[in-house]
Each structure stands twice: as structure tokens, then as C-alpha cells.
Amino acid sequence: MRQAELVLALIMGLVSASLMWKSAELPVGWIPDEGPGGGAFPFWLSAGMLACCVWILIRWVRNPTGVAADEGPYIAPEARSQIIVVTIALAVMIGLVHIIGVYGAVPLFLVFYLRGLGRHGWKLTTAFAVATPVVTFFFFEAALKITLPKGYTEPLFYPLYDWFM
Amino acid sequence: MEILTHLLEGFGIAFLPLNLGLAIFGCLLGLFIGAMPGLGSVNGVAILLPLTFLVPPTSAVIFLGAIYYGAMYGGAISSIMLGIPGASTAVATTFDGRPLARKGMADRALVAAATASFVGGTISIVLFTMFAPPLAAVALVFGAPEEFALMLLAFATFIGLGGDDIPKTFFSILIGLVLSAVGLDIVSGQPRLIFFDIPGFFHGINFLVLAIGIYGIGEILWTIETSHKGIEVSQARLSIPRFVDSLRSLAGTAKTMVMGSFLGYFVGILPAAGATPGSLMAYGVAKSISKDPDSFGKGNVDGVVAPESANNAASTGSMLPMLTLGIPGSPTTAILLGGMVIWGLEPGPMLFIEHTDFVWGLIASLYAANLFALILNLAFIPAFIAVLRLPFTILAPVIFILCLVGGYAPTQDMHDVWLMFLFGVVGYLLRKLDYPMAPAVLAIVLGPLAETSMRQSLLIGHGSPAIFFERPISGAIMVVAIVLLALPLIRLVRRAVRRSADA
Q1: Whole-angstrom distance, CA of residue B156 vs CA of residue B161
Q2: Are residues A156 and A96 part of one domain?
Q3: B342 CB near a chain A CB, below 8 Å?
């Protein structure tokens, strides 16, 4: 915890500084008779973020309490590997949406999660992997008219579009 | 009398078949969401908001309002049966709910929680119906300076009353505001904060991207970590005679219910406070006025009744500033407020004039939702207990997929899905270090409104910030806000003075 507090405060400080720099692309000063320029609002708010990070860092050094004094692990060790696997699986799923679309990535993710992580039976896994995309299609594409990304699988949906849209 | 006429009209809208069906369905869904350990109203409303694009705004808000209510009822179920709060708003319910369940009186605790929720909900909606129209009438004269002052006050309550780490709360508010500034500058129209020239930033960052990231993805990661240990579901013996007996025994808790309802309602109005501190305070008061304070924490029914009436009352209370002033009183209402903007409504007092069907349809449906939630809760207790045994490895991937699709739907841009993922993971990591997340969500919703009203005020005042203090109402609100902002500093100085006096 104590190390994580330091690392995250440093990273957030860097983020704040780069936000200030980015905001300064627009006028951050006071325009007479008009008030602050277009970049002023985010610039001074980011400056405030940076000040908060400095505050957290000073406290970390001088008078650590709470998480800053906690020598325990940042993420519970028994859950750590699962958290990492789930996070990577999510990123892979979102990445796959670009290539094989929602209707390819979602069933794959469900099979991985239910079968691989949850150790559920094939019957339940298959039921979810089939039902979820079907329900999603009817709700979003047919009822809401929101076209979800399909990547290279787009041509497969042309006949379905003709029926439901 | 005018209020009654409006209310009757509202009931006409609330009882339209579509709205009534959505209210009942919303209550049921809310009860399930609330009963799931870790998930509460804010998660349900954030994840399901994109699904409401299917129906008109009034039906959408009725559905989401019903989820809000149902989740407040449902939170008690896992607090009592698992000893794990179903949502942070039901933390105080575990204190006595769990010991009651251990003693084999889970059914009594569940009935007490549902009844108290109903009383809290009903009292608070009556208060709401009486207070909302006059407050909206007062707010009609507010101009840009007053609006800005109110928003500053909303943020100041997090600093002065939120109880979280001060620099981290400030940080959370500021990052939410900065994220809301991404896109095009509202005054000059120039592009602003377009990181790495990625075109996806031109349309700004929709508040739902942050809300679903934090309350969907971040929350599930959090729950995966905290629920890793095995959980033990208490047994509940259910029968009609026991049920009647439980109801009868509640007569003695009427005073606690009324106290919890009023306390919860008024605490709920404050943006930083809301249902969680409201229910904890009600628990504390119930204990201090009890004739038998020692039995608290060991299974006193009053200890279940107080927080449960307070958290339902608080959820109604938090809708008061949202509807009348356009300032949300809780993270859930912040998301509802953002939803109103998506639906094309302008939050604030004008709603009471221009969209009476929306306002009164919602208010009337809250009366109905409260009743449905009570009936459904009592009728389906066994079903909800079964839900608690549902493995999280089924629920988690389904929620992840709802997040994916829900994050995509508002803007239909994969860029936002990646941002949502990033916010979810970073939000989880920050939350582990006690950075509060609610201020950031409130800030990203209010950010564009705050900046517009601030810059409009400055234009009126020819660039002088004195305008905020010259007008009586905005001046008074600004002073209160500044006092709240200074409160932690005053505490710090007092502590330092005392320390040097001791030394």
C-alpha cells in the first residue's frame, strides 16, 4: 500500500502536469472585459490536481497515516492473479471487437470466463455464449437501431439487416 | 391544492401501461441489483442507462427511479443474509441484521428492513411533494452566478462534510472537471485537450464513459478482490405465521422508523452526504435514544429499522436538488441528471414549467414504485436468497458485456470503450488508495454546466469575479461554500495550535 500510494501520486502528478501543458495551447490568462480564456478552466484545475499530488507526496514523506503507512500488499495476493487475468481478458475482448466484431468477441470472452475462470459446465457456458449475443442483437440493433461494431464479420449480417432493420 | 392537481396528473402518467410495467420491472431489477453483494443503485443506473434510449424520457426516468428504489430495498438482503453489505448504503444494516440472522431470526430482520424501507420511502416522498414545487419556484429567479455558486456549494460539501481524505477528494473533483473540459471550448469553439490528436476526443468525454468505467468495470474488479474469500449464506425460516408475528413486533419500532426517515431525507439532500452517511447517522441516533443501547450490534431490530428507513428516505431526498436546482444530491442522481441532458431536457427549475409530465410522472411513480418494491421484496424473499448463491463468475462477465455495449451506445465510438476500460482500471487502483470516486462522477456531469455559468457570470460582470458576491442569493451561497471549503483547513490549524500548546 505504502509504495502504491507513492507511485500513484507520482503518476497522477505527471498526468496533472501534462494536462496543464496541454491546456496551455489555448489562452489561459485573463482576457479584459471577458473573463478567462478557453484554456484557463482546465489549466487551473490541472494545477490544482498537481497541488493535490504534491500535498499527498509531502504527507507521504513527513507524516504518513492510513494507506500511506500501510505496509500490507496493494492487491490481496490470493486475488491478484485473477484480477490481472480478468483485466487482460477484457482488453483482449475490446481489441477483438475491432477485428471480429462484438458478435465474435463476446461469445469468446464468455466461453473464456465461464469455462476457463468459472469452471462452469459446457451446457451453461454454451447457453450464455449463444443467448447473450442474440439478445444484444435484438435489443440494440433491431429495437434501438444502434449498429454495433462488427469488424470483418460485417458481410455476414447483411441478410439479418434486410430482415430486422 | 395545485400540488394535488399536478400529483393526480402525475398518477395518470405513472399508471400508463408502459410506465407502470417499467416501474414494476425496474423495482424487480433494482431488488436483484441491490441484493448482489457489491452492486448498488449507482451501478445499476450507470450500467442500464444506455438501455433506456428505447423509451421516451419520462418512461426512462421512471424505470431508473424504480431501480434506484428497488436497490435501496435489496441492499438489506445481502447485508442480513451474507453479512456483506449489498451496497455501501446498507453497511449499517449489517450491524444488527447479521446478528439477527445468526440467531435464526433472518426472516424477522428481512421483514423489518422491507417495512422500514417502505416507511422511509413514503414519508420522504410526501416531504418531497411538498418541498419541491416551492423550491423550484424560488430557483426560477436564479441566474448564472447563482447556478455557479450552487455548484461550488455542491463540491464544497464533499470537502467539508464528505469525511474522505481531503487532498484525494480535491483531486477527484478536479480530475472530473478537467475530463469534462475535453472537446470543444464552449465559448470560442476551439478544440481543447485533444490528446495525441486522436479524433475521438473532439466529441468530448461523455459522463457515462466515466460512470460505467468506475461503477461497472472498476466495481466488478473491486468485488472480485473482496469476495475472493468464501461466503456463507444464513438460513431463513419462512412461514405465514412467522411473517405475521414479525410484522406485529415492528409496532415498537415506529418511532425509530420516523426518526430515520426524517434524518435520512434531510441528509440525502446534501450532495456529499446521501444514503450511506444518512443510514449510519440514523443507526447512531437510534442507539443513543434507545432504552437498551447495549443490545445494538447483537441483533436489535431497531438497528435494522433505523438505517433502512434512512437510506430509502435519503434516496428521495437526493432527488430534490436534482429536480429543482439541477444539482444532484448523490452519485446516482448525478447519473440521472446526465441522462436528462442526453434525453434533451434541461435540468433545473424550468422542468417544473416546461416538462410537468416528466416531473410529476416521476414523483407519482415513486409512490407506486415504493409500494411495488415492498410487495415484490416480501413476496420474493426466497428468490433473492437464491440469487445470493449465484456464482460471481456468471454475473461478472455478463456485467462486463453490458459495460462494453453500454459504453459504446451513447457515442457509437470504440474510442470511448477503450477510455471506459482505462477509467475502470485506474478508478479501481485509485479507489484502493482511498481516493473517493463519487466526486469525480458528479464533477464530470456538472463540469460543462459549471464552466458555462462561471464564464457567463464573468461576462455579465465584465470580467470581475465580484459579481458572485454582489448578488444577495449567490453571495450567501458563496459564503457557505467557502466556509465549507475552509473547514478542513480550520481543523488542521486548530490541531496544530493544540499540539504546540501541549508541547
Answers
A1: 8
A2: yes
A3: no
Amino acid present at B445: V
pLDDT at A33: 64
pLDDT of residue A35: 66
Q: Band of the pLDDT at A99, cuts 50, 70, 90?
A: very high
pLDDT digits (tens, 9 = 90+) for A109-143: 999 999 988 888 999 999 999 999 998 888 888 87
Could you say which of A18, A50, A69 is where a domain stops? A69
Residue of A nearest to B219 (CA): A83
SS3 B461: coil
Instruction: Provide the chain B residues 40-59 that lie in CB contact (below 8 A) with chain A.
Output: 51, 53-54
Q: Which of B6-15, B115-124, B377-386 has the weakest average pLDDT?
A: B377-386
- B398 to chain A, any CB pair closer than 8 A? The answer is yes
Last residue of a domain, one of A28, A47, A69: A69
pLDDT at res. B272: 67
Domain carrying residue A117: 77-164
Give the mean pLDDT of chain B: 87
Instruction: Provide the pLDDT confidence category of residue B230 given band limits of 50, 70 and 90.
Output: low
Provide, as residue numbers in chain A, all residues whose Cβ is less than 8 Å from the Cβ of B195: 22
Is there a contact between B174 and A49 if contact means CB atoms under 8 Å apart? Answer: yes
Residue B184, chain A, CB below 8 Å: the answer is no
Closest CA to B148 of B446, B444, B352: B446
Cβ-based neighbours of B441, under 8 Å, separated by 6 or more: B176, B207, B210, B211, B214, B215, B331, B334, B335
Q: What percent of chain B has pLDDT over 70?
A: 98
Percent of chain A with pLDDT over 70: 97
Element (H, E) at B430: helix B414-432
Chain centroid offset of residue A77 CA: 23
Judgement on whether residues A30 and A108 belong to the same structural domain of the protein: no
pLDDT of residue B168: 92
Regarding whether A134 and A62 lie in a shared domain, the answer is no
Q: What is the CA radius of gyration of chain A?
A: 24
> Residue B493's pLDDT is what?
82
Contact B459 A34 (CB under 8 A): yes
Question: How many domains, in total, are found in chain A?
Answer: 2
Residue A162 burial (CB < 10 Å; 0-12/13-18/19+)? exposed
Q: How far is A159 from chain B (nearest CA, A)?
A: 22
Is there a contact between B432 and A4 if contact means CB atoms under 8 Å apart? yes
One domain for residues A115 and A53: no
- Tell me the pLDDT band of B229, cut-offs 50, 70 and 90: low
User: How many CB pairs below 8 A link A and B?
Assistant: 167
B463: nearest CB among A4, A32, A146: A32
What is the overall mean pLDDT for chain A? 87
Range with lowest mean pLDDT among A149-163, B94-108, B257-271, B340-354: A149-163
Picking from A12, A35, A66, the nearest residue to B434 by CB comes out as A66
Statement to judge: residues A132 and A84 lie in one domain: yes
Check B171 against A52: CB less than 8 A apart. Answer: yes
Q: Which of B167, B228, B396 sits opposite A52 (nearest CB)?
A: B167
Annotate B358-389 with DSSP letters as a single string. HHHHHHHHHHHHHHHHHHHHHHTHHHHHHHHT
